[in-house]
Amino acid sequence: MKLCLLRKFKYLTVIFTIFASQIVNAETLKFDMTIEEMVKEVTPGFTNKVWAFNGQVPGPLIRAKEGDRLIITVQNNSTLAHTVHWHGTFQTNSWKMDGVPGVTQKAIQPGDSFVYDFIVDKPGSLWYHCHVNVPEHVGLRGMWGPMIIDPKEPTDIEKEVTKEAIMMFSGWNSEVAMEYGKGGHPQELNDYFSINGKSFPSTQPLRVKEGDVLRIRLFAATVEAAYHLHGHDVLVTHKDGLPLDSPYWADVVHVPSGGRVDVIVRMNNPGIWINHDHIEAHTSNAGKMPGGAVTIIEYEGVETEEWYKWKGKEYQPDFYMSETMKKGSGIHNVDVYKAKAPESDRRKRKKKRKSKKSKAE
Amino acid sequence: MKLCLLRKFKYLTVIFTIFASQIVNAETLKFDMTIEEMVKEVTPGFTNKVWAFNGQVPGPLIRAKEGDRLIITVQNNSTLAHTVHWHGTFQTNSWKMDGVPGVTQKAIQPGDSFVYDFIVDKPGSLWYHCHVNVPEHVGLRGMWGPMIIDPKEPTDIEKEVTKEAIMMFSGWNSEVAMEYGKGGHPQELNDYFSINGKSFPSTQPLRVKEGDVLRIRLFAATVEAAYHLHGHDVLVTHKDGLPLDSPYWADVVHVPSGGRVDVIVRMNNPGIWINHDHIEAHTSNAGKMPGGAVTIIEYEGVETEEWYKWKGKEYQPDFYMSETMKKGSGIHNVDVYKAKAPESDRRKRKKKRKSKKSKAE
Amino acid sequence: MKLCLLRKFKYLTVIFTIFASQIVNAETLKFDMTIEEMVKEVTPGFTNKVWAFNGQVPGPLIRAKEGDRLIITVQNNSTLAHTVHWHGTFQTNSWKMDGVPGVTQKAIQPGDSFVYDFIVDKPGSLWYHCHVNVPEHVGLRGMWGPMIIDPKEPTDIEKEVTKEAIMMFSGWNSEVAMEYGKGGHPQELNDYFSINGKSFPSTQPLRVKEGDVLRIRLFAATVEAAYHLHGHDVLVTHKDGLPLDSPYWADVVHVPSGGRVDVIVRMNNPGIWINHDHIEAHTSNAGKMPGGAVTIIEYEGVETEEWYKWKGKEYQPDFYMSETMKKGSGIHNVDVYKAKAPESDRRKRKKKRKSKKSKAE
Q: What is the distance in angstroms between the Cα of A253 and the nearest Cα belonging to chain C?
């Protein structure tokens, strides 16, 4: 134990040494990312104005290897100021890239851009989010996305994983949903809850096959969660990106606000298994049940009945980024997360098209 | 550690092997359970309409040994549809017994019954609850009860336990308490909080004697809890039924919604010790203090003063199921949890009795 | 592991043995502490009536060595009844010193005092708080303070600590802030959140230098917290005062209501680093952002820009008790926590002064 602790405490020193010796392998990755005013349909009947990274909620997947240098130009195409905080990165020698307005930088004004330039010196399940007026921008406007940094030395159990899934939990408040600059008062309460920006039944199945070793990366993006998977215990392996010395089994996993917990599950129990936030208030859509932060794991080859809630549902295989997680380093948009352009824009464009058309005539 | 992890990951495989070799010892247990419309008195002055398993809140204790087969017929005598989810069971090869409406079965309609048939292939502190309209049925209507599965291989520390106690934490909302079909909107807040269905001072003392090794199984049935015992640290030994590799000491134990945490305490400090949920909002009865999810551990032989809050209190020794936990496998009603028949029923029965009487006359 | 567990379970027995052999070194410390009606300015524009231990919020630091005897006379100078519970102490053979009204003592009436006399038989990050009408007295009126008991056998990593910081998290409700006897209903929600009684930007920087080994003792005094430090992972070393067998790294640390978590951080990453409760609702002042339970770690020698939020801020080096923690055993008032006498008192005193003056004339 003492050894173990010492090893841990040398962590940062060690990674620098490794870093020096491995720097030949480190890559420099250049990305562009925009912030757009969009409308997210959380579930039919409930839409929410968002400031969407690359026009989507959650934002695009940023993927890199431990030790890589990222140069990310963030262009603010919205009408209010923002920043981006890269939650979990150490920002060693680059504290001015930490993305906190009035502390590490001035906020990025509408129309402006900012270049974030830093080395991803911590591996694991990280994320990024705005750090301006957090209760509204992060809490209610979808300004969050995943950043997965592949470790130089994965643990044995990580190496066994055959399927990746990312679940980001968030809340929404329909009372202020359609008005920018409103919401986030501590006495207001959310009425919608979602995984990856969608509330049940608008979430998607997570399809697996027997024998899969599934890693689910749980992100409490805007609200805490108590994740419960039916039919399986999960092994809790990572906290905030780093492996636990003493993993433990659970059927309800608490993820505190802003935290991440990775769990690994052997898919050895074919069936149709609901999995969801077990906080009661998070399992309805403004009181309409079922709803909320709920989804279903479907094993390949299992027959479902006619009355199955999701019978014949149109399937989007990338809803948990399982497809996108197969790609290598880069910034990856995820089509199913795309929000819509606001009505006014659509009308303007329609008008333009019409006027072009009439001019053409 | 690696060994340990491997051991863990082989868990399911292993239990099947054990299972095969020990199947001769496995029992088949057949139970009946009903769902009744009842009225629960949480504390004098506050009653709540419930759908009570076997007419009680919490529901009856289900007790079995790891590997047993349970066949439970659930009869719905209420006016709305329900199911029963057996939280924590793996339901290996029996996913259709998982109790999720629209996913694993059609909800049990009023007057109908459903036979759940499954093997309890995971040991420890499990529970069961309805899975229809969870924010109301579970969150506000008392549809939850304990299921304790004795492990084939208890840990050393478990073997030392001399006294068992079960504490199930829940919240209530007096504004919707007496109207079925109402309540559960995420913006509503509870105003009563309880242990095993009662709010202080209507809870009961937990009486121990010096030398007892007390195991308290904490269940966050409908609300999270931060359990604090005065005068002792507790050793946190189990999470969601399974033993931790690395138990730890605590004086405040967080139990996330739906989770269970087992703690073991050596009763070596004679006195009168309050113990309670440390979440401030959970320690009053609609603002009246003291109240809420609070109780007191009383050591045998300790003298109390005249002004002691519970001086001369009528004692119900089974309020934490310490008596019922001495019984073997089976479904065990717990008298102190009995709810009352609703007023209308009582009137009807009275009428019937009267009419019978008048006919007889 | 088994050994380890045994060792743990012998804990209490062992400390008594040690205690007997070391009793020669144990000290008896006598303190006086008062409860005063004061007004706390949480941030300009928001003040709250409090019952302040020694006139300050948080209360004074109580510091002793494991095994010491404390004799604390608490004088109630307020208009309502109170007690003091010494949260985390075992109170072995002294359960009547546990501070629970109606259970271990009668509440201390206005004008009265009570002598608490007990041995601090558990080391670590403890605290004290009132146990009368907790949702108001503790939850909203500042009746809480730190008690740090130095262990006889500190862990290796504890011995490396070069700088101590204490952070106590609390909430406030401006709607009932200025009226004693109001507030604490479970359906009321807080609108201000603070560290050591102040909301950002009225909190203070925590100044460190490269090479410091910083121990932060996190206390969820009245609300849970999800503590996030930018630019560093923290090693979670202690839970509720006692060392973990298996410390773990985190960038978001959940502290349940009433719980304490100690974290140790090597200050090896010079910069200006915000750190805060990551629960969104806790990061504004009644909706005004930025605000809430937020502060900033400033490394010595790091240049900040003109637009830095805290540029030229008047610095109070003891805001996290880093100075006071250098003192030995005793009860230590902390000047920066002083609340103000209420308006009426000030008026009375002014009047008195005036009348004295006029008499003198």
A: 13
Cβ of A2 within 8 Å of Cβ of C274? The answer is no
**Maximum distance among all Cα pairs of chain C, rounded to whole angstroms:** 81
pLDDT for the residue numbered A344: 72
* Predicted confidence (pLDDT) at residue A157 exceeds the cutoff of 70: yes
User: pLDDT by residue (tens digit) across B63-86?
Assistant: 999 999 999 999 999 999 999 999
Q: What is the pTM of this model?
A: 0.92
Neighbours of chain C (3+ CB pairs under 8 A): A, B
Looking at beta carbons, which residues of chain B come within 8 Å of A253? 256
Domains of chain A: 159-319 (2.60.40.420)
For residue A177, the distance in angstroms to the closest alpha carbon of chain B comes to: 15
Q: Which of B60, B137, B49 is nearest to B342 (CA)?
A: B49
Please, which pLDDT band fits residue B154 given cuts at 50, 70 and 90? Answer: very high
Mean pLDDT of C44-57: 98
Measure in Å the smallest separation between the Cα of C176 and chain A Cα atoms: 14
What is the torsional sign of CA A103, A134, A170, C265?
positive
Tens digits of residue pLDDT in C290-319: 999 999 999 999 999 999 999 999 999 999
Which range has the worst mean pLDDT, A204-208, B18-22, B118-122, B306-310? Answer: B18-22
Q: How many CB pairs under 8 A join A and B?
A: 148
